[in-house]
Amino acid sequence: MIMSLCKHDSFRDVRCGCPLFSTAPHRAVRTLRREILPGPLLFALAFSLAGPAARATDVTTFHNDIARTGQNLQESILTLANVNSISFGKLFTDSLDGVVDAQPLYLSSVTIPAQGTHNLLYVVTENDSVYALDADSGSTLWHVSVLEAGESPSGNHGCSQITPQIGVTSTPVIDRASGPDGTIYVVAMSKKSGTYYQRLHALDLTTGQEEFGGPVTVQATYPGTGDGSQGGNVVFAAGQYAERAGLLLVNHVIYTAWTSHCDARPYTGWLIGYSESTLAQTGVLDVTPNGNEGAIWQDGDGLAADPSGYIYFLDANGTFDTTLTAQGFPKMGDYGNAIVKVSPKGGKLKVADYFNMYNTVSESDADEDLGSGGIMLLPAQKDSSGTLWNLAVGAGKDGNIYIVNRSNLGKFSPNGDSAIYQEIDGVLGGGMWASPAYFGGNVYYGPQGNNLLQFKFSNAKLSTSPLHQSSHAFGYPGTTPSVSANGSQNAIVWAIEHSNPSVLHAYKAGNIGSELYNSNQASGGRDQFGDASHFGTPTIVNGKVYVGTTSGVTAFGLLSGK
Predict the structure, then answer these.
(1) Phi, psi of 333 (to 5 degrees)
(2) What angle do CA 464, 338, 232 make, to 5 degrees?
(3) Cβ atoms within 10 A of the Cβ of 35, count?
(4) Each residue of 411-441: pLDDT tens digit?
């Protein structure tokens, strides 16, 4: 591993972007958390997000939390009044060694040995590099390559979705309480002499050095006779897959999910877990073990988890067994084109529930599946009788919004989707190759070829048409918005337009028909930043907005003297 320099001493303990305590030293907090905040209570805190009185939020996972809401409710610097082309703009651009497809992650107040205390931005590239940057100046504090001797990143396997290299694609996850100084977990693809490798790395937050005896090579088998099977088991073949869904850390397990290179068979849908403290494999699930395809794409969106530790994702086109068991599950265990809920109980990954639309087979055959979009778990919604509903929302290529009750997803019936909690057909106009965001009862969707759309919950039902929409349409792949707010105040929706050049937009969250700023407004191209990466998801924290690009990362914020 090639390495340059080091970092850390934190003053708060964070998991999934949520401050648990804000005054005790890091190690003391970590011990406290493990003694008095076990299991469900810890997840309830992480799921709900801390209030506006807490310290500035770390961003340690994709879209800010394990529900994948995309909201930071502790942003006190950026306001509706100062986000405009006079006061706000591009601060710096860091040129790195490859495409930045993953969302940048952020930690506040990290002490670097011999370099002082910094707010840090962690950025990974498709050239198999991990960077720790000063989040305020952009200077590099350390940089490591996770390639082993003689290796290079993978090529694109003839697929333009991740190109020209495949190295680190998925958003890592950070745990400040793991190891001596905290750990960032990264999945990287590489090759050497025609052999491909997928490895999980656990890197010290202060130095970038490998921890826990890592890295570990991803290998797996699962009972089945589907694509890539040998002797009654499907076999995980590293060269056939990419890890692009954001990593999930829940109950001290790192979950990885795998997709193919375009639709180049053989491939199936894999979910694989690893202990965050030992990197030992903890569980394996194949969701199309006796069929084919059914990969986990999710546009870079992370696997989601609820307060009980159940895992949720959208599965892509692939085999679905329309012959069901007495309990309503596919007889051969194939869940292509489904909303899937997975139980990790007892150390064994198992599908606990699912939803497939009535025409799932024809949609899969037409490559019109759910898997192109990402899932989002919603805060509890109260209906007119006072009943609370725990829901999840997802959308894919068919332009429909599917809302499921997390206690009963709805399973499958060839006669219609009557068992689903709510389905809004055709409302998105274009298909989804992006993920939604949530704020204050609003759900924001950015379908490709359509405007950014704002829907709202009332009495636990989502509006069947958008209340507001942006004045501007977003071309392929649409946009994955993020939200910043100070509690319920100064809420802003941020979205990246994939044009030439790409554009960062900011809208009033209460009515996204009102645009506050975009990076084309300032004269002379002052705020233009080139091309955002294919999965580009903005990170908004501590008064700045960070955007991954095809050549590095750009930071926006309040301009000097404004």
Answers:
(1) 75, 25
(2) 180
(3) 8
(4) 999 999 999 999 999 999 999 999 999 999 9
- Token readout for 280 is 């030992």
Q: What is the pLDDT of residues 263-291, one digit of tens each?
A: 999 999 999 999 999 999 999 999 999 99
For residues 218 and 200, the answer to whether their CB atoms sit within 8 Å is yes
d(CA 301, CA 171): 8
Q: Look up residue 457 and give its two tokens.
A: 């919950």
C-alpha angle with apex 474: 470 to 480, nearest 5 degrees? 85
Residues in the chain, how many?
562
Closest CA to 342 of 381, 383, 312, 308: 312
- Owner of token pair 């490709």: 448
Here the contacts of 236-239 (C-beta below 8 Å, separation 24 or greater) are 236/270, 236/272, 237/266, 238/189, 238/196, 238/197, 238/198, 239/154, 239/157, 239/191, 239/195, 239/196
189 phi and psi angles, rounded to 5 deg:
-105, 140
Sign of CA dihedral 465, 470, 472, 476: negative
In whole angstroms, give the CA distance from residue 430 to residue 330: 30
CA distances from 546 to 93, 403, 494, 543 (A): 10, 30, 11, 10
Mean predicted lDDT score pLDDT of the chain: 91
- Phi, then psi, of 558 in degrees rounded to 5: -70, 135
CATH superfamily of 2-558: YVTN repeat-like/Quinoprotein amine dehydrogenase (2.130.10.10)
* Burial class for 276, CB neighbours closer than 10 Å (0-12, 13-18, 19+): buried
Please name the residue that has the structure tokens 């599917």. Answer: 402
Distance spanning both ends of the chain, measured CA to CA: 43
d(CA 19, CA 29): 11
- For the chain, give every domain's residue range: 2-558
Specify the pairing of strand 482-486 against strand 71-72.
Answer: parallel
Neighbours of 385 (CB within 10 A): 7
* 535 vs 301: CA distance, rounded Å: 9
Cα–Cα distance list, 196 to 45, 294, 499, 518 (Å): 40, 22, 33, 41
- Measure the CA dihedral 91/94/98/102, to 10°: -50
Burial of 151 (0-12, 13-18, 19+ CB in 10 A): buried
